[in-house]
Specification:
The protein has about 400 residues and is an alpha/beta fold. About 20% of the residues lie in helices and about 40% in strands. Helix 2 packs antiparallel against helix 5 and helix 6 crosses helix 7. The longest helix is centred in the first third of the chain and has 14 residues. The model has no long low-confidence stretch (mean pLDDT about 90).
Length: about 400
């Protein structure tokens, strides 16, 4: 992994700018810890040896097009990792500006398990701050796309702030081609009574995708995440939600569908940092062919966080004898007056249910597809916006 660090983060390529001291510190941390391996607990099911076989190019590829979604929305398009500023047209109450050194100076990461976060801090091209101070009338789309000849390693970085009482629907769409690396860091802050519905639609291609998202939720604010992931050659998502003040609420719903030569790893964490906070999580994985799925969901209720409530549920379907799914739900509780529960199941399609559908005249293929869709769609049917819900479920149905 030392060779990989030297290829992805050569000392001579460090940018000289207002962030130079932060970049150098991140570079030292990356070289000190190195990239995760099979002995790194948080990465033991997700080897990154594929990156060692890639020949990354110093420049990005030809232009890629933003996705055309079937509902009205405002767009920020990151083309091959770089924001397309030419087509930017944001609604009133939304501002976009370069992030300052102060915005990034407070970040802190751990050791080897956070190597890609250190890499992003050392190598990002431009960090952006997106500020929302109103209730948006239509969704805001963050589109991340790459072209078919993409073979670079790029590191988008974004800070999103919702002011007090702001409300927004954020649609994060990832569509990748080529064989490069997209290493994204996104920090989200919700001020008092803000509400963010965050849809993450990802999938496809040979591009290696690494995403790290941190959400800080303050008094009476609500963060709701909905994930639909249709697989990738290699993908990792770390999603951490911190409920920092009373009344804060965090919810995560997600479905991942995998097939052969795909490996997707989701690590989620919800921290109840104080009392009178609420969380809920429902996550499902379906793996066919030789696909490998990983889910690690963690609920951490800190000391002096009485009257906190959490529920974590994960269920998985193995659709072939060669597929693998590794699931680990965690509850870590240091307060007594709380309610917390978790459940995890892994199985195959129910033969009795298949027989029932066949006995009602459905062909085997249709009966199989109907059961898979019903299982996969359950976490996503609660999306608040009907148009977005229809689009998400259509993506899911196409993947199945």
């Amino acid at each position: 992994m030392t060779e990989l660090a030297e290829r992805l983060a050569p000392e001579s390529a460090l940018a000289e700018d207002d962030f130079s001291d932060l970049r150098r510190a991140a570079q030292r941390a990356l070289m000190q810890h190195g990239f995760p391996n099979l002995k790194t607990e948080a990465w033991k099911y997700t080897p990154i040896r594929l990156l060692e076989k890639r020949d990354f190019q110093p420049q990005a590829a030809s232009a890629s097009a933003a996705p055309d979604l079937p509902f009205a929305a405002d767009y920020l398009h990151f083309d091959n990792g770089l924001l397309n500023e030419a087509d930017l047209d944001l609604p009133a109450g939304v501002t976009l500006s370069p992030a300052s050194r102060a915005d990034l100076a407070a970040v802190s990461y751990g050791g080897r398990e956070d190597a890609f976060a250190w890499l992003n801090l050392a190598r990002f091209d431009q960090a952006w701050k997106l500020r929302i101070d109103t209730e948006l009338e239509r969704p805001l789309v963050l589109a991340f796309t790459t072209a078919s000849d993409f073979a670079a390693a790029v590191h988008p970085r974004l800070l999103i702030e919702l002011g007090a009482n702001a409300r927004a629907e954020l649609i994060e769409v990832h569509r990748y081609a080529g064989e490069g690396l997209i290493n994204t860091v996104c920090d989200i802050e919700l001020d008092a009574a803000a509400v963010l519905n965050h849809v993450m639609a990802r999938g496809g291609g040979e591009t290696v995708r690494v995403c790290r998202t941190r959400v800080d939720v303050r008094r009476d604010a609500e963060y709701r995440a909905a994930v639909v992931d249709t697989g990738a050659r290699l993908a990792r998502q770390d999603l951490s939600v911190f409920l920092t003040e009373a009344g804060a609420r965090g919810e995560i719903d997600g479905t991942v569908v995998l097939d052969s030569r795909q490996h997707v790893d989701y690590h989620t964490a919800i921290d109840h940092c104080t009392g009178q906070t609420h969380s809920r999580e429902n996550f499902r994985l379906l793996a066919g062919g030789t696909g490998v799925g990983v889910f690690n969901g963690r609920i951490h209720i800190h000391a002096d966080s009485d009257d906190s409530h959490s529920d974590l549920n994960t269920a998985s379907l193995l659709l072939s004898d060669s597929a693998r799914i590794n699931v680990k739900p965690e509850l870590e509780i240091y307060s007594e007056d709380v309610t917390a529960s978790h459940g995890a199941t892994i199985g195959q399609l129910d033969d009795d249910a298949l027989f029932y559908l066949r006995s009602r005249g459905l062909p085997a293929k249709e009966a199989n597809a109907l059961l898979k869709y019903g299982f996969a769609a359950a976490p996503l049917e609660g999306l608040y916006n009907a148009a977005i819900r229809g689009w998400v479920l259509e993506r899911l149905q196409s993947a199945l």
